[in-house]
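Subject: Sanity check before I submit

Could someone independently write out the structure tokens for this chain? I want to compare against mine line by line before I put it in a report. The sequence has 307 residues.
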Amino acid sequence: MRRQTFDLDALRAFALGVELGSFARAAGRLARSTSAVSAQLKKLQRQAGAPLLRKAGRGTALTEAGETLLAYARRLLELNDEAAAALRGVALEGWVRLGLPEDFGESLLPAALGRFGRAHPKVRIEARIGRNADLRARMAAGQLDLALVWDDGPVPPHAERLGELPLCWIGTAGAPPPVPAAQEPLPLIAFEPPCLMRSLATAALDRAGRPWRLAFTSPSLAGLWAATAAGLGVTVRTRAGLPSGLRPLDHGEQGLPALPALGLLLVRGEATPPPAVAQLAALLREPLRAQLDAAGADAPRTRARAA
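---
Independent answer below. Compare away.
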């Protein structure tokens, strides 16, 4: 029996289209025409010997064969990209001090840093998870080489804007949100100040004439998630790193006001960083942009600024 060898470019288009929820958007990301991506999908379907997609309302959904192939495609592409990175940087050495917001710690660190460590075992990474103000201050003081920060003020030097994520009200998934009648204060769960998202939430409530009260404050994101899951109130974050048991509340649900989108910056310590820093930045860029595209497709056009 002749063995089938799948086309990696076609697998990449397939996996990216599913991740972004649109093969047209995948074509734009891959710098290809929509017709070229469509041809790749047809080729992949011939190689698979079974339909990969089916109609679902106005869009498409994966068939059982498509779900099986997607799982393998992600593994094959990860190994391919890891091998390519390893060959490009066989002698890569050094030390990278990386800063990330808590929102991305669990969702980004294990996979991205695991891949980077396997490809570049001689590079030492010191990762710091922290609040936005702390990360920006450490970046300005030269204590970090690379940091992911929210755009909450003047754009720092050597910053690359990756995109935007919509802010949303978040409540527990297991029960109706604890939103009282309009004349009663809204129980709000928030970080201790200073906090950009807390300021944006309270400003939106004040503009809407909606009374509010602080029901719970915490210095950590884990504390916010726990209090929200317990039904003590609602909080404001993006969908990044949202744990199970919580859900974004629909726009206008229970009369909650609309919120803006918040920009995300990847900041380097130098205009031309050392090779290890540049490689790690490149590795982080793709999953971050995919997450931004997937979560921010319906983002409001308003750009958030510090209150």
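---
OP: Matches mine. For the report I'm noting this point. Residues 94-164+262-298 form a domain with the D-Maltodextrin-Binding Protein; domain 2 fold (CATH 3.40.190.10).
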